[in-house]
Q: What sequence folds into this?
């Protein structure tokens, strides 16, 4: 349901509430208790419906915002599970996967590839996450090593 449909539905509900208010005013002068009770119940139900409509409108706005945010990024992309902005079609500037998964999301770019004695790596300046993209020479064990490891 788009915003125009929700707005027109809200306008129709407002008109129905106004008509029901008018009927309630007419029923006040009536001595028929059952009629007054039925109009009061219809009025309450219509107001509850109006409240729910506004709640659903808020949910739709939040979902659209989440969808726009989700479409702004591509990833994780193999082989290193990097995440990229959609505009980065050449995949030259990966975002830090660790920072990207935090709540609230932090957008921090990884460094350019750096070569050292262990291999070629990229690191995050925000959280110090480090990933070796290639390794040269032997290391103790198969696990990923970080600059803070002894």
A:
């Amino acid at each position: 349901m788009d915003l125009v449909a929700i707005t027109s539905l809200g306008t129709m509900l407002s008109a129905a509430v106004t008509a029901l208010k008018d009927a309630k005013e007419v029923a006040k002068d009536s001595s028929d208790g059952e009629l007054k009770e039925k109009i009061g119940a219809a009025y309450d139900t219509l107001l509850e419906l109006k409240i729910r409509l506004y709640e659903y409108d808020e949910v739709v706005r939040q979902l659209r915002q989440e969808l726009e945010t989700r479409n702004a990024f591509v990833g994780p992309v193999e082989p290193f599970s990097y995440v990229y902005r959609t505009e980065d079609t050449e995949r030259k500037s990966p975002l830090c996967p660790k920072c990207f998964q935090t709540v609230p999301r932090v957008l921090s770019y990884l460094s350019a590839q750096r070569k050292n004695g262990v291999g070629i790596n990229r690191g995050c300046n925000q959280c110090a996450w480090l990933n070796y993209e290639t390794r040269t020479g032997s290391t103790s064990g198969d696990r990923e090593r970080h600059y803070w490891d002894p």
About this structure: The mean pLDDT is 80.
